[in-house]
Design brief:
The structure holds two protein chains of two kinds. By secondary structure, chain A is of the alpha/beta class. Chain A is built from 13 helices and eleven strands. Chain A is 33% helix and 18% strand. By secondary structure, chain B is mainly beta. In chain B, a hairpin with a 5-residue loop joins strand 7 and strand 8. The chains are: A alpha/beta, B mainly beta. At the A-B interface, helix 5 and strand 5 of A face strand 2, strand 4, strand 5 and strand 6 of B.
Chain lengths: 388, 156
């Protein structure tokens, strides 16, 4: 059964703060839940399905459901795929709604990595791979640096080309009053920023921010009853990418599988996409993803991004018009939620005016959780304007 | 009362040794780690389909056979990718910069490791390397790699 047009995103809310020293994590989940429901014109008592990932404190989805007072739940899902979880949740919610298992699904993300500085961890010691990776000191940045190095080796990608991705994001962020980094930067400034893990520099990395966001996904008849313009879920694809018995290939992502699945379900192609939210934990994440989704040939991402293609509103592929994780917000080190939210804004015509894509009808949102350097999970959503 | 002895001369500055944090060991992998303490790098092979298995595990991820055996790897390979990490964490907090890498072993698997004993100018994708073992002090040793001795690849 296809989910095409069988569910709508009716509410989307991004927490306006990027540093929240005086609230609990559950409290921020509550703030974004209330925000998204208000955006949709619904209330907590309308919610009959709740989705969250491991950023939600407590016992799966149950503790937060209890805290929020979600008394009418008949569907819960705490699927964990890292930063792509929230795109996976939209796909799962749409499928559950299409099967009439529920009608109003709430998805929340929140956390306080900037204020609470939890110990960083790339996985538990009980993970079967832990002994063969963790003792060698991999960090988040260094894993993506391994991917960047191999992409450079195979395809001749350069640091200046990666920098162009940050430049485009920064030009978008200047129009977002809530963005953490609002000053446009140049390629030279990116290349002069401190080396973190060669070849990735500080400005190749996303921000670390407190905050969160929430979405409300509803059945079409609920959408029709709401005053607010909604966004149709047209297609969804998800794909773990594994280390594949020692054959890990650092030059591509799970988008090579999640993208075609989402496009096929939606009945559109890469050429139909008016706006794309592309996961941008690091510049290399964007580069590999746009290749893997078919926006350019494999290996040609460097040339594609270097000529301004990503810049809104008139580039070939306007991306991350909120400034993305590179400049705006990467709450809880998980950028998937904000990717969906900005796609919803574009389709509603509510992006910041200088970066609103004219007549934006079809948008793509893509997330990648885990690490490009080991194992990860890609998720792609195709979303359409109500009349799409 | 005699004067205190003059302070000993400072030892010549030596590079800080790379930390060697102990891996978590379990019944499925204890043979691998015991071998590292003896300077041997083991791999698993599937007794049904013949595939080399990495990382070591009880099930063959190619054919689902539970019949596997250990064998000793040659301990040679080439750098598949590497990074020089200036912002290390945890046990490596004060050890930066360190080189994190994937090495493609001659037997096929790409394994996460560190490259040691290589100047930055020597590091390259494709660099031939050979295994060295760094004692963790916990009955195991970390298999790391250094540039292979000249001619070692051809001679073997």
């Amino acid at each position: 059964m296809s989910i095409r047009g069988k569910a709508h995103i009716a509410g989307a809310y991004e927490h306006p703060d990027r540093k929240i020293p005086d609230k609990s994590i559950a409290q921020v989940h509550a703030e974004v839940a209330v925000g998204a429901l208000a955006d949709a014109g619904l209330s907590m008592s309308d919610v009959d399905a709740y989705f969250c990932a491991s950023d939600a404190p407590g016992f799966g989805a149950i503790s937060m459901a209890d805290y929020l007072g979600l008394r009418r739940l008949r569907y819960v899902d705490s699927t964990e795929t890292g930063g792509s979880s929230y795109l996976v949740h939209v796909g799962h919610a749409a499928a559950a709604i299409a099967q009439r298992k529920c009608r109003v699904a709430l998805i929340t993300l929140a956390g306080l990595p900037r204020s609470q500085k939890p110990p960083r961890s790339s996985g538990s010691a009980a993970a079967p791979e832990a002994a063969f990776e963790q003792p060698f000191g991999p960090t988040t940045v260094s894993m993506y640096a391994l991917a960047a190095r191999r992409h450079m080796y195979e395809y001749g990608t350069t640091s200046a080309q990666l920098a162009a991705i940050k430049v485009a994001a920064s030009r978008h962020a200047q129009h977002n009053p809530n963005a953490m980094l609002r000053t446009p930067v140049t390629v030279e400034e990116v290349l002069e920023s401190p080396m973190i893990s060669d070849p990735l520099r500080r400005l190749d990395c996303c921000v670390i921010s407190d905050g969160g966001g929430a979405l409300v996904v509803v059945a079409p008849e609920v959408a029709a009853s709401l005053p607010r313009q909604t966004v149709k879920v047209l297609g969804h694809g998800e794909s773990p990418k594994l280390t594949d018995n020692g054959r890990i290939d650092l030059t591509y992502t799970g988008a090579v599988w999640s993208g075609p699945r989402a496009f096929a379900e939606a009945g559109v192609t890469a050429g139909d996409i008016d706006y794309a939210s592309i996961y941008d934990s690091f510049t290399i994440t964007v580069l590999q993803t746009i290749e893997d989704l078919g926006f350019c040939q494999k290996g040609k991402g460097g040339a594609f991004v270097a000529d301004g293609s990503l810049e809104a509103p008139h580039g070939r592929l306007p991306f991350n018009t909120d400034g993305g994780g590179l400049c705006n917000n990467h709450p809880v080190n998980r950028g998937g939620m904000t990717k969906v939210i900005e796609a919803v804004r574009q389709l509603r015509g509510e992006a910041n005016a200088p970066v609103q894509v004219p007549d934006c009808e079809i948008a793509l949102a893509h997330g990648n959780g885990g690490s490009l350097g080991t194992r990860s999970a890609a998720a792609t959503l195709i979303l359409g304007r109500e009349d799409a | 009362m005699s004067a205190p002895p003059p302070p000993a001369p400072a030892p010549p500055a030596a590079p800080a040794p790379l930390p060697a944090p102990a891996p978590p060991v379990n019944p499925e992998t204890k043979e691998f780690w015991a071998a590292t303490a003896q300077g041997r790098l083991l791999l698993k092979r599937c007794l049904d389909c013949g595939s080399v298995i990495w990382y070591p595990r009880a099930i063959c991820p190619e054919c689902s056979s539970m019949r596997t055996e250990w064998f000793q790897a040659r301990g040679r390979g080439r750098v598949y990718s590497y990074t020089i990490n200036y912002r290390t964490e945890g046990a490596y907090q004060d050890a930066a910069p360190i080189v994190l890498a994937y090495v493609e072993l001659d037997e096929g698997p790409r394994v996460m490791t560190n490259i040691v004993g290589a100047g930055q100018a020597d590091l390259a994708v494709g660099l031939p390397v050979e295994v060295v073992f760094h004692d963790t002090g916990d009955g195991s040793a970390l298999p790391r790699f250094r540039p292979a001795a000249p001619g070692a690849q051809a001679a073997s």
